[in-house]
Design goal:
single chain; 353 residues; alpha/beta; 13 strands; 27% helix; 18% strand; globular
Length: 353
């Protein structure tokens, strides 16, 4: 792991450089997740990536809502804020707008961000606020002991649906595409190497970044991803997206994904059969501003299709905080510096004697 030389004089004697490592981002707080929880893996990879970014830890903020994942700020030796249910993106927007030089992370879960926090999640992405949002998706409410969440599978039996849920599940990636997020990715707790790479890509993106992480809740929803993530089957049941490369599946890469010209739906085909060639296979382009193919990939569901992992979209456009700063600078240039006192005493005011 590379090390970042920290040059803030307050952290070295007489201003001498201090090399940051993973341990510099570890707090003295006891990590209080259930033994075996997938959250440990996510925390480890984030702490691993932080010193590689070349950012002073005093310039990093972690903001969370409510849920098991939302303990995260306590375990990161940076600035942090444990906020209220579903409102972390709104508070993070304020932090980033007022302090555009900070790197602001939002840690949330499928319940926190997609139920009570759905509105705030959507509009943070829509506005292209330069936030790094990691959504822990375990398809269950873990902190409140096992009720179904917005991403729970149809028919799942649990404490709040003893006969099986009759709610259709929400696809977080579809929400991200609908909100025009400029970065959309997916990874998994049991693949630390891939997860680390995805966290690093998210960290370096400028704009609304959203990374969904499949995370096992071994207490209330154990094994929900095992059917496609187990080592014995993952080569056939998962696929890793690579920019500029055809989307091939299976250990021997003999099959691929193409778009059916009649239905405009994805289908699995075997290269070399029925006239299918490599040219028929979708080539993944994460940088296109027209994300139709990426949306199709994000909607592919197991067991009909293998589960895609990686970066679905990574595009650039002006960020909310940059445009806000430009507006403020333009207003000052045209009207001069403002006065709070004049503002409070302007308009409809009156005096009571």
């Amino acid at each position: 792991m590379s090390e970042h030389v920290h040059t803030n004089g307050t952290n070295g004697s007489n201003g001498s450089p201090v090399k940051l490592t993973r341990n510099d981002f570890v707090t003295n707080q006891e990590v209080r997740w259930c033994p075996g929880c997938g959250d440990y893996s996510i925390l480890a990879q984030v702490q691993k990536v932080m010193p590689e970014l070349g950012i002073d830890k005093e310039k990093i903020v972690f903001i969370s809502g409510i849920g098991c994942s939302s303990r995260f700020p306590y375990y990161m030796n940076t600035y942090g804020f444990h906020t209220i249910h579903g409102r972390a993106p709104a508070i993070a927007t304020g932090v980033k707008s007022a302090n555009p030089d900070l790197q602001v992370w939002v840690i949330t879960g499928d319940g926190d961000s997609l139920s009570i926090g759905g509105n705030h999640f959507i509009h943070a992405l829509r506005r292209n606020v330069n936030l790094k949002i990691i959504l822990f998706n375990n398809r269950i409410y873990g902190l409140t002991k096992g009720q179904y969440s917005p991403t729970s599978e149809l028919g799942k039996i649990n404490k709040s649906a003893p006969m099986g849920t009759i709610d259709y599940p929400l696809n977080p990636l579809s929400v991200g595409f609908a909100a025009e997020a400029t970065f959309i990715g997916r990874s998994m707790d049991v693949d630390p190497k891939h997860l680390s790479a995805m966290v690093e890509r998210l960290a370096k993106h400028k704009g609304s970044g959203f990374l969904e992480v499949y995370q096992n809740c071994n207490i209330f929803n154990d094994g929900t991803f095992k059917s496609f993530s187990d080592r014995e089957v993952k080569d056939e049941r998962m696929l890793y997206l690579e920019h500029g490369k055809p989307i091939l599946i299976g250990k021997d890469k003999a099959k691929g994904i193409r778009i059916n010209r009649q239905t405009l739906a994805p289908e699995i085909v075997t290269i070399g059969q029925d006239g299918v060639t490599l040219d028929d296979i979708i080539v993944h382009d994460e940088h296109t501003n027209e994300p139709y193919l990426a949306m199709i990939l994000g909607r592919m569901q197991y067991p009909e299709f293998p589960v895609p992992m990686g970066i679905f979209r990574a595009v650039e456009r002006p960020t909310y905080e940059d445009m806000l700063s430009n507006q403020v600078a333009d207003a000052i240039a045209k009207r001069g510096a403002g006065s709070i006192e004049k503002l409070l005493n302007s308009g409809e005011t009156w005096t009571i004697n």
